[in-house]
Predict the 3D structure of the following.
Amino acid sequence: MADAETRATLWVILASATLTVMAGAILGPIVPAIQSSLGVSESLAGLIITTHGLLIVVVSPVAGAIIDRIGPRRPFVLGLTLYAAGGGAGLVIDSFGPLLASRAVLGVGVAFVYTGITVLIYDLYSGQQMDRALGLRSSANSLGAVTWPLVGGALGTLSWQAPFAVYLIALPLGVLAVVTVPETGRSKQNDDEPDGESGLSGVVAVFRRQPALLSIYLLYFGANALLYSIVVFYPQLLEGVGITSSFLVGLYLAANGGAGGVSAAVYDRLVARTSRHVLVAAAFALWVVAFATATVATSSVTAVPSVIGFGLGLGLVFPSSFAWIEALAPIERQGQFSSYLASAGYTGQFLSPVLFGPLVPAFGVRGVFGAAAVVSGASLIALGMVLGRRPETAVRAR
């Protein structure tokens, strides 16, 4: 592609990446309004936020298999269309059942967009260009996490249904994708490359050849679980130091996303000077300090470094995870194996309150962050031991 075409394609990919993280977050500020307007309990209203995540976990492997079969362009465009239809339907739906069904459609759309973005980057870029695209993708995710909930909250002052209009931005993005995103030739390439292993046995065979793949999924699961320990429990810690305004709490969470966006934006330059292993080790070290600091924060000022430190580490882990999948997964199955990252990540987000929540009654909310510091420290030690035994690990690093 010409440079101008490459840039246009990348901008469409990055704009779409901002949508995948805002799928649920944009409605966070209006959950109480949804509850009162539809006459449902708080837990049922919460399903409006979480249902799409369950569909992402379940549908992502299907999306990955389809992408490997026909290429990423058409599934990506389909995903944007489903995203707009499922998300925007809330503008006209005024009962709980149909609204929940529309959120399921949204989840299917996100699954196709999320994995479609990943494979498009794999197919269209290579070397440092791919590292840059993956870093910018993570940076765009962070930007979306900061921006879209603020937009949703502002629109929510008009009516509880108004924030659903934001999902319709996927429609013009879909049109732009048709115009700017090329076919990558993946389907023809995969037809020409015989693969004698199919189905579950084929997946197991790949894991046997590349056992390091499991550690990448564990890394991505853990990073998302730790992220949601911040999202779910940090507001409680802030309340303990006198910060109760939802706007101020939002600023702390926005600082977390903003820090991740900064480190992800320079990811390609960092990885060119060192290795992905070193960057992930640096992220673990940042997390140890960040979570340990949270356990002793006593003021609005001392509560700031924790969210910034964690965000900086997250901006290094996310693009490294996707780059490792590209390096390890068979080219004809990159869609399938990258889709498992989406499933692992959303599972980590969902299970985070389940894993960390029981610590609150026993140790208080600071116990959550103490446990997170221990997990991060253990991960750092484990990574150091693996690298010490095998300097050239199965996970290829540049």
